[in-house]
């Protein structure tokens, strides 16, 4: 099993952001359920951070789809890594809101606003631990 994390900037306008976020989650949950992919989505301050877990061919397909998705720009792929088990096994796509404990970790790293492109590899791993344990936000 592989894990893929990426960050991107939202290309949505303030008017369409909430609808776009709901659509992204709905589409991801549907696709992921059909393809045995699990994951988490974190959105804050105009940036997405997503971690996906599944087979490498399916994750590569998702990267290709992501590159064509007009709701994302400036996509940064953190890379594929092998994992022994899914960390988000209960979630086709868990959504964690900005107000979660993950935000406290980011604040400790000196981020007043969420800037995922500034995270180094160790900080991405630590941020993921907070996302594993975070309560999901059902509002989106």
Protein architecture, described:
- There is one protein chain.
- This protein is of the alpha+beta class and 140 residues long.
- It has a single domain (2-133), classed as Alpha-Beta Plaits (2-Layer Sandwich), CATH 3.30.70.
- Helices cover 37% and strands 27% of the residues.
- It contains four helices and five strands; from the N terminus they run βαββαββαα.
- The protein has helices at residues 17-35, 56-67, 101-108, 121-133; strands at residues 2-10, 38-44, 47-54, 72-82, 94-96.
- Strands 4-1-3-2-5 form a five-stranded mixed β-sheet, sandwiched between helices.
- The mean pLDDT is 90.
Q: Strand order of the main beta sheet, please?
A: 4-1-3-2-5
Query: Uncertain regions: pLDDT < 50 for 5+ in a row?
Result: none
- Percent in strands: 25-35%
CATH architecture: 2-Layer Sandwich
Mean pLDDT, rounded to whole units?
A: 90
Helix content percent band: 25-40%
Distance between the termini: 28 Å
In this structure, how is the largest beta sheet organized? 5 strands, mixed
User: What is Rg?
Assistant: 14 Å
Number of domains in the coordinates? 1
Shape: globular
Domain BLUF: 1-94
GO molecular function: blue light photoreceptor activity; FAD binding
InterPro entries: Acylphosphatase-like_dom_sf, BLUF_domain
Pfam families: BLUF
């Amino acid at each position: 099993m592989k894990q893929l994390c990426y960050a991107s900037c939202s290309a949505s306008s303030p008017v369409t952001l909430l609808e776009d976020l709901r659509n992204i989650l709905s589409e991801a949950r549907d696709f992921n359920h059909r393809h045995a992919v699990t994951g988490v989505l974190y959105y804050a301050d105009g940036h997405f951070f997503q971690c996906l877990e599944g087979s490498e061919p399916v994750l590569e397909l998702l990267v290709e789809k992501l590159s064509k998705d007009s709701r994302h720009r400036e996509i940064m792929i953190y890379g594929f890594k092998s994992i022994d088990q899914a960390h988000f096994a209960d979630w086709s796509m868990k959504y964690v809101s900005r107000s979660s404990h993950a935000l406290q970790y980011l604040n400790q790293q000196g981020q007043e606003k969420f800037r995922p492109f500034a995270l180094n590899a160790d900080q991405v791993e630590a941020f993921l631990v907070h996302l594993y344990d975070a309560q999901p936000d059902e509002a989106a």
